[in-house]
């Protein structure tokens, strides 16, 4: 009987973790939206990342882990009125705010669906963008593989994340970044440094897999080295 109980226990713990994460981000959706859209420099960072992704007019582009829809304006501008933007997020509060943004702006070619970035509810797309998602994934390399498969050969994938800076100019602010990572985490178990280290490792794994799947992949750092951007065309 123990062979049956252990998987059940692990599944229960996993379900509890998902529920806790959804509850956390739903509770703080309004604050997240304010930070995501009004923090100085974050708008230009998103625009730069979308410009690097460079979806073509008429494309179907997926915003994976779209949050409250902060990337929608830049993505929509790129694909134009003939293109389509589809946001995917698994948190009810984020999805609700993203839908409100779409309704408020009157965007007919922007949509949002509730779904898991590890199991996208979309069969195919021309390009895919994710911002500040990789660090929250248990197996980011496998998820990036799935994203590359979703767009297929010739499709574009862009991954933007925040991690500790390795630049001399940014290192003094790493302690502050540790605290922000801790405050923004649904689970407060473990040390702050441990949380930041895990975040860095996951981001690195995502970027490595992107380079493995895209022979033309480019990598750049921004915002004093805290922002990491990888973009490529799937082979």
From TrEMBL:
<feature type="domain" description="Methyltransferase">
    <location>
        <begin position="61"/>
        <end position="155"/>
    </location>
</feature>
<keyword id="KW-0808">Transferase</keyword>
<dbReference type="InterPro" id="IPR041698">
    <property type="entry name" value="Methyltransf_25"/>
</dbReference>
<dbReference type="Pfam" id="PF13649">
    <property type="entry name" value="Methyltransf_25"/>
</dbReference>
<keyword id="KW-0489">Methyltransferase</keyword>
<protein>
    <submittedName>
        <fullName>Class I SAM-dependent methyltransferase</fullName>
        <ecNumber>2.1.1.-</ecNumber>
    </submittedName>
</protein>
<dbReference type="GO" id="GO:0008168">
    <property type="term" value="F:methyltransferase activity"/>
</dbReference>
<dbReference type="GO" id="GO:0032259">
    <property type="term" value="P:methylation"/>
</dbReference>
<dbReference type="InterPro" id="IPR029063">
    <property type="entry name" value="SAM-dependent_MTases_sf"/>
</dbReference>
